[in-house]
Design brief:
The protein has 106 residues and is of the alpha+beta class. The chain has one domain. Helix content is 31%, strand content 17%. Helix 1 links the parallel strand 1 and strand 2. The N and C termini lie close together (10 Å).
Length: 106
Amino acid sequence: MTLINTYTPTEDKEEEIKEQFYEELHRTQDSVPKHDVTIILGDMNAKLRKEKVFSQVVGCHTLHNVSNENGEMVANYAINNDMFLISTFNIKKSILEHGHPLIIKQ
């Protein structure tokens, strides 16, 4: 098992900075042995709502009525890397309220 702890640039940062972050995250993830379960955790600065377009990676336990750009970026990252956002699935509400999303690849 490999844990990657991260802090995503905030919503107000320039698009280029966010793209650089996800490129670096992808390079880091690519360095993980393929047989490892990978968990990305930390503050993704993301707001996600339940949307059909993200249904393969986002569960029904979201806290927001509107997704922000960071939410869309993290959901797309999960889709593109065969991962899912575990914090939006059936887990304890107290974890969700503290905003600690986990992205898991099996």
